[in-house]
């Protein structure tokens, strides 16, 4: 477990710094393009959100679908070859980059169709601005894919740090570019009056950051111990086997993207009227902050370990890792959830222009937070299927989730007023994720038998018992500060300070209650934090 701990600490440190700088990046972007429009001519943030979402969707496909689910186990097995897997990785890189380049060209050519698909309910001015942004943002596809491909290869070779640390470069580049935009052009809320130079600065900055993020990984390639060269002789790489595995992953991704398309298309009707595409994206970014720092940091090294245990046919070790990963993720995630719930108003104010829009944003974020714990635990279960080179089963429960996401989004669109549309769609997403977790547990039990997670479930129950009063204590501080109209919501600077005070209060109460309950996982978490500080 020491190797898992060291790798997890490295990933956690890089992820934490990258997420903090990413938070700053998004705060600066929200300052340049206000998230929730205050008048009928607003919506520039929604236009940019839709355009920048297009390559981000493909990145999510690559990083958490095909590469993580199919490529990592293949690279681990290829490491047993006499050349250490260099020939396999050479073919893989050549094939992957060729496919990425072709996909990028097709996406740029199809930009008008993509914008129409995701923003069909936007007005003509907003649609034109979205398309202008999209032409600058879509080339990110190639570099997002390159980053994910190189990063997963490094992870499979036991080099975990660069993949987690390189996004910091992207964030720094973006912060500089977005600040330059504010300095040159000021705050832009409306969708009219945009010049080609303005579009190039804001969208070109986003793309330049992704290019830098991918290029940084090349400086760490020597650590992988692989000697690669362009190799277009793809025969013998196992394309039929990879294709069979990737086929289910591709269908899973298609299902998820279609559900996302429904969500974005429907919620774009609320642009210029309240919380819409940009608000949902920023709320999702906040939602993913603890998930990325904690779950990905712990789960990424565990995935390599799970793949090794499956290859060695060690089911008892596999179950032990499932139990350990669930406990470790649980103790951190429940504490993070309590802190975020308590500080939800000042957190929301960081991304908005006033107390009223902060409350609107907070409702969207709260709807997402319903599924924070289920999504965290589902991550480990899904990676266990991937370790068994089973991508068909994850497709099944993801298909059910996607259908529920689309159905609940349509229900919200037909039944809720436009001002509450984003909240209803986000809540539907959370309910679908809960159903997905239940299905994943049932299907994994059918695949490998008893999961041995009884102790982990009882441990999570202890964490929740400690988390409820912790969140209440933090909310009490908000009430003491004046509630929704108090000083923490009067400015972004005050929101950061107030949110920090509330979050620290909630976490302190959480740890104290766990100590009173004598939770054994508290000592494990303490050791993990000490390793993190040393790293």
TrEMBL record:
Originating gene: murJ
One of its Pfam families is MurJ
GO molecular function, a single term: lipid-linked peptidoglycan transporter activity
Please indicate which superkingdom the organism of origin belongs to.
Answer: Bacteria
Classification via InterPro entries: Lipid_II_flippase_MurJ/MviN, MurJ
Q: Its topology with respect to the membrane?
A: Multi-pass membrane protein
Q: A single GO BP annotation from the record?
A: peptidoglycan biosynthetic process
Keyword Transferase included in the entry's annotation: no
Q: Which residues cross the membrane?
A: 27-51, 57-76, 88-116, 128-150, 162-186, 198-221, 242-262, 282-304, 325-348, 360-381, 393-415, 421-444, 456-482, 494-517
Name of the molecule in the record: Murein biosynthesis integral membrane protein MurJ
Question: Cellular component per GO?
Answer: plasma membrane
Q: Where is the signal peptide?
A: none
Protein's cellular compartments: Cell membrane
């Amino acid at each position: 477990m020491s190797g898992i701990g060291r790798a997890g600490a490295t990933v956690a440190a890089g992820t934490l710094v990258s997420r903090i700088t990413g938070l700053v990046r998004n705060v600066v972007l929200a300052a340049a393009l206000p998230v929730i429009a205050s008048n009928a001519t607003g919506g520039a943030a929604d236009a940019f959100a839709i355009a920048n979402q297009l390559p981000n969707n493909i990145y999510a496909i690559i990083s958490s679908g095909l590469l993580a689910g199919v490529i990592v186990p293949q690279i681990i097995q290829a490491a047993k070859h006499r050349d250490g897997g260099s020939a396999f990785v050479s073919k893989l890189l050549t094939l992957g980059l060729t496919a990425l380049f072709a996909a990028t060209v097709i996406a740029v050519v199809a930009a008008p169709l993509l914008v129409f698909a995701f923003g069909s309910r936007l007005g003509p001015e907003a649609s034109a601005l979205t398309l202008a942004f999209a032409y600058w943002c879509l080339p990110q596809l190639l570099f997002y894919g390159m980053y994910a491909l190189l990063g997963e290869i490094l992870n499979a070779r036991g080099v975990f740090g660069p993949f987690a640390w390189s996004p910091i470069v992207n964030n720094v580049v973006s912060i500089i570019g977005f600040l330059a935009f504010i300095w040159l052009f000021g705050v832009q809320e409306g969708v009219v009056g945009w010049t080609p130079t303005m579009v190039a600065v804001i969208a070109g900055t986003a793309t330049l950051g992704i290019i830098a993020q991918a290029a940084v990984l090349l400086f760490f390639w020597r650590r992988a111990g692989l000697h690669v060269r362009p190799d277009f002789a793809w025969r013998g790489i196992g394309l039929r086997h990879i294709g069979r595995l990737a086929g289910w992953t591709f269908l899973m991704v298609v299902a998820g993207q279609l559900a996302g398309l429904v969500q974005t298309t429907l919620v774009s009707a609320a642009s210029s009227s309240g919380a819409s595409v940009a608000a949902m994206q920023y709320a999702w970014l906040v939602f993913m902050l603890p998930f990325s720092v904690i779950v990905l940091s712990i789960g990424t090294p565990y995935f390599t370990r799970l793949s090794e245990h499956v290859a060695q046919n060690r089911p008892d070790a596999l179950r032990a890792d499932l139990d350990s990963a669930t406990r470790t993720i649980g103790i951190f995630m429940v504490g993070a959830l309590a802190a975020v719930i308590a500080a939800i108003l000042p957190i929301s104010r960081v991304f908005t222009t006033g107390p009223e829009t902060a409350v609107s944003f907070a409702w969207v974020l709260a709807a997402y937070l319903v599924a924070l714990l289920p999504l965290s635990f589902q991550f480990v279960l899904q990676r266990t299927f991937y370790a068994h080179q089973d991508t068909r089963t994850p497709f099944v429960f993801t298909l059910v989730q996607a259908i529920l996401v689309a159905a609940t989004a349509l229900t919200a669109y037909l039944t809720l007023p436009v001002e509450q549309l984003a909240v209803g769609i986000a809540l539907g997403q959370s309910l679908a994720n809960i159903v997905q977790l239940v299905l994943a547990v049932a299907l994994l039990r059918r695949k490998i038998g008893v999961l041995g997670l009884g102790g982990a479930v009882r441990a999570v129950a202890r964490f929740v018992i400690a988390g409820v009063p912790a969140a209440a204590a933090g909310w009490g501080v908000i009430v003491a500060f004046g509630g929704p109209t108090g000083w923490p919501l009067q400015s972004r600077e005050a929101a950061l300070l107030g949110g920090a005070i509330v979050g620290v209060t909630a976490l302190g109460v959480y740890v104290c209650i766990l100590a009173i309950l004598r939770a054994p996982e508290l000592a494990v978490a303490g050791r993990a934090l000490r390793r993190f500080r040393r790293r």
